[in-house]
Amino acid sequence: MRERRADTFVAAECRNTGKPTAATRTEEVFAAADCLRFFAGTARLLPGLAAAEYASGHTSNVRREPVGVIGQVAPWNYSLLMAAWKLGPALAAGNTVVFKPGDTPVTAAMFGELAAECLPPGVLNIVCGDRDTGRAVVAHPAAAMVSITGSTRTGVEVARAAAERVARTHLELGVAILDGMTAAEQRTVLRNAAQLVQCEQHFRRKTPPGAGRCVRSAVNGASRGADKMPR
User: Are residues 111 and 195 in the same domain?
Assistant: First the structure.
């Protein structure tokens, strides 16, 4: 269904984030649809023995059950694709989700509207708001699991709140570069306007020697101007 409405999603994401149309179409909208298809199939093909004889005269069975309510908080840089990454496996496993998108929530909200045509009421809930809204989602006692993509500091706060009620956590946090940047890393510095979790601009306070020079080189060598941006 979402592939048939791809043009609508691409236009909305570009207006909301300012991203180029070509990259949004191929790297986000169609990739998001592919993610959902993958998780839907994977959920029916889980590996491992369902039953085995571990003791004489006894059969042990493995029963997989949903975790329950999952509270999820996503950043702004990949609104639609991040929704697919987080919602796909959670819903395919039979959970219900409260999903809080970042500051560019338009396509995530559109995804919720589309899902409402397929899912029972209350299975998927899109909640927009600021950081206080995100805190409320991950701290709610009904959330048996919390998932967040954000800074390390935010991850520490989420882990602390989840630990108080022994909730499961899925934390995708910022990374640090320990060594000098390679040529390949330089080329990715400006990808998605440098708004990437794995982006090589996220340094420690003590950056490797020459790291700043590498970044400046990548910036100076990049194509600039609206006429050079893919549409």
Answer: no
Per-residue model confidence as pLDDT tens digits over 207-222: 455 555 555 555 565 5
Note whether 118 and 192 are same-domain residues. no
Question: How does residue 27 score in pLDDT terms, banded at 50, 70 and 90?
Answer: confident
Residue among 72, 94, 68 nearest 84 (CA): 72
Q: Is 160 exposed, middle or buried (0-12, 13-18, 19+ CB in 10 A)?
A: exposed
Supply the range of the domain harboring residue 189.
Answer: 183-223
Residue 218 is predicted with a pLDDT of 55
Ramachandran area for residue 225 (φ above 0: left; ψ -120 to 50: alpha; else beta): left
pLDDT single digits (tens) 43-75: 888 776 678 888 888 888 888 889 999 999 999
Q: Are residues 194 and 96 in the same domain?
A: no
Largest CA distance in the chain: 74
Looking at residue 101, which CATH number applies to its domain? 3.40.605.10
Residue-wise burial string across 36-64, b where 16 or more C-beta atoms lie within 10 A, e elsewhere: beebeeeeeeeeeeeeeeeeeeeeeeeee
